[in-house]
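pasting DUF2236 domain-containing protein for the record, 461 residues
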Amino acid sequence: MPDGSRLSPSPALRADPLADATIERIFASAETGDDGHGFPAAAIGIVNREIRTWQTNGMLAGWRAAPDVPAPIAAALEDFVRQAHGLPAWADAARIARAEEQFMDISLLSCTLLFCASLPECYLMPDLAGVLHVAGQLEAHTDYRVRSTAAMIFPVMLHGGLTDAEGGGVAQVLKVRLIHATIRHLILRGSPEHALESGPVPPLPASGGGLHHTLYEHGWDVARHGLPCNQQELAYTLLTFSYVFLRGLRTLGLALPRADEEAYLHAWNVVGHVLGIESAQMAHTYEQAGILFAELQTAGARQSFDPDRRPELAASLMAAMENEIPLPLVRTFPVQLTRYLCGKKTAQALGLARRVNLPARALFIACLGIVLGFDAAVRVFLPQFSISRMLTRVLGYRFMARILMDQTRPLKLPDVLLNDVNAALHRWQTDPRQPGWVNKVEAKLAGRSKPGSDKPGRGKQ
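structre below
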């Protein structure tokens, strides 16, 4: 079991030695492009091609690069997979399985919490928002960010995602880990160790060569912003998928039993280990997670990023959700739900405090009070009953079916993952906790023709 101690120096100046050493070996052995700046275009293409083959956990055991991969790059990738693909000794399969059961039971609500809690809190860190902005002008590509996030969450949390050979959680997390290291090395134009010893990385003239060139040419000041994708940012992001998720359930009156909360935190700590996060940056109880989350937020707020990209990222995310709601009067509900789940301080930092007119705000407050009050009264007789659960499932279905599952959007999901998520979406059409009439209302509001159908109803496209 990892301990809860804190390490020094600052987590903002620590990254991922294994993944960074891997990318350093790859870039050092690669031929550079003809742009005059030493951009390792060929190496990036080879790495991207090879990691796309990591589809299941079982494929990682004894994995070998393709025969045409240059020997130094093949050796670096194979060494990385051999060292990184195993679960930690403290991983508890029973607790991981329990977390998977909770995720399946929570189902569509998890998508609403991803959009209205986890991602907004992720954008709150100024430096992290700055990295996200650099990595592809993200406010113009919200779909890509959301789908890439889902491409990690679902393989991890679906049945056997971390523990079964047929699961894809470990494989997907290792892809993300190498992507983080690649981003670091491109932005810093070298290893983190070199960047810590040298001065700021100056910007280069824009070449218009795409995302990787944009990262390479942007410039970075480690003394001011820390390392890109550093331990502080990684640990904070991990908590947005675990602690913020659990906090959202509590806020909605749908809290899990304590043992289940700790199982959920444990599963994500296992993910964190595979992702290269230090054990000292993990929490094991809800209370510990809350303290660590606040500490990381405070530390991150000290590192201002100019210009502040957070409002742009948040506005783009809100717009993506609002576009999937057909009724104008309730179109601002995602913004208001985000403010309710994340709190006033986060809403102000993200520029969400003044985006709602008075009638819409009054309607949301009235609906929230009625729903929570009605739920509390009915649960005296029916403990599993919840209108708030039904309404957040409606939002989750719309976001999942129309943003995550739409293959015409950026970042086409792999067929294996698409099939798994499709199966989960079909299973989630009916909420077994609710009476039949509640499921019928949910199907109507979600745009499905009937409970259990994954086809949108007429007029709901």
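The two ends are 48 Å apart (CA to CA).
The longest helix spans residues 358-378.
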